[in-house]
């Protein structure tokens, strides 16, 4: 079953603009992760935020987590054409359970 | 480290044929996951192993699907007989703890069943 749901399903922006993707989930979590998938490739881990954290940064990435709203956002600042990819959120509910992935947001950055 | 290795990268077969997908996890990772990705259903977890033992195979769609992990460095996903609706990209991923934290994905096998 799908735990995380990304929004929007697709996003097209100009190079240099910021891109914001959202993820909502249903049950309580230990942590939430964001992954990136380039066309024809496997998923690559970007960033992990734990349930007791509210915000995390990594380079041009900023992730927020609101456990009261069961939602997270991924912000990519100063986007580049190379950021074009699909972005997935994945949640880890508790203990020894596997990650559950959303269906992803397809980001297109136009040069 | 070479990362997670999957073979073949592409497989085209005819309906009714047996298909075997292979995965070599990252050395030292003791959890292995098989996923299927389609446009309609997104990324679905099929089965995962901890220390070579299958833990949860509830995502395996039918008895036509089976997975094995005979040792810590090798796993197979078999479909017999294959059907056109099995066409998808199959990913293998591995990590260190059981099912938590970062997962490392292979490049995937694109399966087409005619």
Verbal overview:
Chain A has 111 residues and is mainly beta. In chain A, 0% of the residues lie in helices and 55% in strands. Chain A starts with a strand and ends with a strand. Chain B has 114 residues and is mainly β. Helices cover 0% and strands 54% of the residues of chain B. Chain B contains no helices and eleven strands. In chain B, the strands form two sheets. In chain B, strands 2, 4, 5, 6, 9, 10 and 11 form a seven-stranded mixed sheet that branches. In chain B, strands 1-3-8-7 form a four-stranded antiparallel sheet, with no helix packed on it. In chain B, a hairpin with a 3-residue loop joins strand 4 and strand 5. The chains are: A mainly beta (111), B mainly beta (114). Chain A binds chain B through residues 2, 30-31, 33, 40-45, 48, 88, 90, 92, 96-104, and chain B through 4, 33, 35, 42-43, 45, 48, 50, 55-56, 91, 93, 97-108.
Overall pLDDT metric of chain B: 93
Structural class of chain A: mainly beta
> What share of residues are in beta strands of chain B?
over 45%
Unreliably modeled segments of chain A: none
Query: Could you list the spans of chain B in which at least 5 consecutive residues all have pLDDT below 50?
Result: none
What brief labels describe this structure?
heterodimer; A: 111 residues; mainly beta; six-stranded mixed β-sheet; five-stranded antiparallel β-sheet; 11 strands; globular; B: 114 residues; seven-stranded mixed β-sheet; four-stranded antiparallel β-sheet; 0% helix; 54% strand
Write the layout of secondary structure elements.
The complex is a heterodimer of chains A (111) and B (114).
Chain A: E1 5-7, E2 10-14, E3 19-24, E4 31-37, E5 43-50, E6 55-58, E7 61-66, E8 71-76, E9 85-92, E10 100-101, E11 105-110
Parallel strand pairs in A: 2-11
Antiparallel strand pairs in A: 1-3, 3-8, 4-5, 4-9, 6-7, 7-8, 9-10, 9-11
Chain B: E1 5-7, E2 10-13, E3 19-24, E4 31-38, E5 42-50, E6 53-56, E7 65-71, E8 74-79, E9 88-95, E10 104-105, E11 109-113
Parallel strand pairs in B: 2-11
Antiparallel strand pairs in B: 1-3, 3-8, 4-5, 4-9, 5-6, 7-8, 9-10, 9-11
């Amino acid at each position: 079953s799908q735990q995380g749901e990304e929004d929007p399903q697709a996003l097209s922006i100009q190079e240099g603009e910021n891109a914001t993707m959202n993820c909502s989930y249903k049950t309580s979590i230990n942590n939430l992760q964001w992954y990136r998938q380039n066309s024809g490739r496997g998923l690559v881990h970007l960033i992990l935020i734990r349930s007791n954290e509210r915000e995390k940064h990594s380079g041009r990435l900023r992730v927020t987590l609101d456990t009261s709203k069961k939602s997270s956002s991924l912000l990519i600042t100063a986007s580049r054409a190379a950021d074009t990819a699909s972005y997935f959120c994945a949640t880890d509910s508790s203990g020894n359970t596997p990650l559950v992935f959303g269906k992803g947001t397809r980001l297109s950055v136009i040069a | 480290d070479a990362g997670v290795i999957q073979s073949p990268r592409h497989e085209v077969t005819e309906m009714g044929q047996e298909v075997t997908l292979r995965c070599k996890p990252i050395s030292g990772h003791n959890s292995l996951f098989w996923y299927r990705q389609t446009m309609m259903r997104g990324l679905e977890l099929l089965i995962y192993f901890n220390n070579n033992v299958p833990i949860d195979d509830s995502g395996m769609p039918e008895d036509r699907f089976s997975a094995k992990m005979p040792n810590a460095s090798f796993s197979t996903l078999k479909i017999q007989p294959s059907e056109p609706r099995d066409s998808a990209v199959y990913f293998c991923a591995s990590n260190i703890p059981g099912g938590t934290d970062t997962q490392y994905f292979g490049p995937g096998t694109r399966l087409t069943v005619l």
